[in-house]
Design brief:
The chain has three helices and three strands. It is an alpha+beta fold and 102 residues long. It has one domain: HybD-like (Rossmann fold), CATH 3.40.50.1450. The protein has a three-stranded mixed beta sheet with strand order 1-3-2. The two termini are 27 Å apart.
Length: 102
């Protein structure tokens, strides 16, 4: 994620970040509410979600309610499809997010 996303975030009511986690039980879904949090190293080439929220607040006067969903993966090797456990988790995650915003 790049710092240029801060302006778009400042105009959003809600922000949902989804991350493929390198550690944890593959296919598990973790949800974490995010708050703006400054990270001095965040604005080089990429930024954390919390740092982007902090930039939106500092530069544009507001940051949306935000949540981070993390799904641990079985492998980070290149491939053309998801592993079965991660595929099932993503289907469940899409359904959960969709139900929250109907």
């Amino acid at each position: 994620m790049t710092p240029e996303l801060a302006e778009d975030l400042s105009r959003a009511e809600h922000a949902i970040f989804i991350d493929a986690a390198a550690t944890g039980e593959p296919g598990a879904i973790h949800r974490k509410a995010l708050l703006p949090e400054s990270d001095a190293a965040a604005f080089t080439h990429r930024a954390t979600p919390a740092a982007l929220l902090a930039a939106a607040l500092a530069l544009y006067g507001r940051a949306p309610d935000a949540v981070l969903y993390s799904v641990p993966v079985e492998t980070t090797e290149l491939g053309d499809r998801l592993t079965p456990s991660v595929g099932r988790a993503l289907e469940q995650l899409v359904a959960e997010i969709s139900s929250r915003f109907r």
